[in-house]
Amino acid sequence: MRLPAVPRLSQRNYAIAKLACVAVGVLVVVLLTSLETTSALLAAARSAAGLDSPMLTLLFRGILALGFAALLLWAVKTLWLRLSSQPDRPPVIGKGDLDVAAGSGITSLPGFRKRLEALTRSVQTGAVDLVNGLISIGFSLQASDIHISPAREDAEVKLRVHGNLYRLGTIPDRLYPLVVRRIKILSGLAVFRQGIPQDGQMRFQDRAYTARVSVFPTSNGERMAIRLATAYARIMDLENVGMPEEMLLDYRALLNRGQGMIVVTGPTGSGKSTTMFASLLHIQKTRGDSANIVTLEDPIETSFRRFQQTQVGRSTNLTFSSGLRSVLRQDPDVIMLGEIRDEETASIAVRAAMTGHLILTTVHANSTAGVFDRLVQMGVDPAQLSSTVHAVISQRLCRRLCPSCRREAELTAEHRRQLELLGVEEMPEGPFYEADGCEKCLERGFTGRVALFEMLRMTDPLRDLISAGTPAHRLREAAVEDGMVTLLGHGLSLARRGEVSVMEVARVVSD
Ligand SMILES: [Zn+2]
Fold it and tell me: Which pTM does this prediction carry?
């Protein structure tokens, strides 16, 4: 179907249309009064309404002209929207609209670049096909986000896959407003409002897909960010999240405990949820039906069929603290608590962890040892803390070196400096690796990601230090002396195996 070239219904275009309609309205009234039959009719209507004075006549004509203009404007607007929106397509992405090649991986990006180019070049392509195509490409490449940013000539499309941003191509100026419009319709957003940020959720017939849409005004037009997720995603097995073997053995033993608290920390997007759900899955597998598992999350990023998940936060009447207090009456054995960020939640969580519940949660802190400081700041008694927390895990995500083009490399002066800044006194023995990029990794040198872990496991000496209010850096030193493998240590062992580069480890560990 060919799209008519309809200009965008912007504030400016709408203002011009308003003026034009008023002008036509005035013209029509002038025309009506100049014709003999209609002017006689109008005069009769005026005298019947008692409007015979010259001023009132003028007012009457004015009202007539404005009324006509309003009617005309309504007709123009309706027609305009019909022409530019292809309203015959429903505001939902149907099952047959998506063409998703499952698990194709990032290596096929060039093919998808050609596909977008072919789509935008064809005059047959309408906004509906283009949006369906973009969403299909996003899901095919397992992208987490699609970014569409308008520039002067066209709009640029980028995809985020495994944390890296890739340029997919452009959408020409003539199609962009229509694409924005279509995405807004799909997400239930106000199509007319262009100067304000808006958030929505795309509708899919196939419940397996979800897409959160954010629209943001810029001087070139509206910028769109679409976050893609597949509902009912597979939960990763604990064995596959990337923990060092010994840590995994320890951690599995801790997950068997009937009560207490396990805290995961790390920046946004460091894979904390993946670890937490892998842990819940492990508990479910080992304890079977005897474990009653609940989650409190803000927001629920991915729905899993296996678990009873509860949304707390802005869009609900529940907060973490009120949700936790209520869910404790549901007799849970294991509670996954999205985050502890206030005193009330912290105190209820610690109490629950001392009374027969295993709590998995996250706390925002710089390091494993820093979590205790943070919780003490939230009013938790250090002695209680030391007796309830079994372990604190810190994690980061590194970009994995491309196995096709990685090569051995010496530590350069820059590497040594970076490591020195991170407190490494003795330079580690290589070999280390780097990658220059090849066709398979799109010249980036990276494919996929790998996690770095550090686990501070509670021991009696550490318990004493925490009860005595020892500062985080002293606690950390004690844990390292006790044999704790640090994030840097795990990173360097991965670097020696060629999984990651030293620079990448230094980059993520210094966060
Ligand atoms: Zn490569």
Answer: 0.70
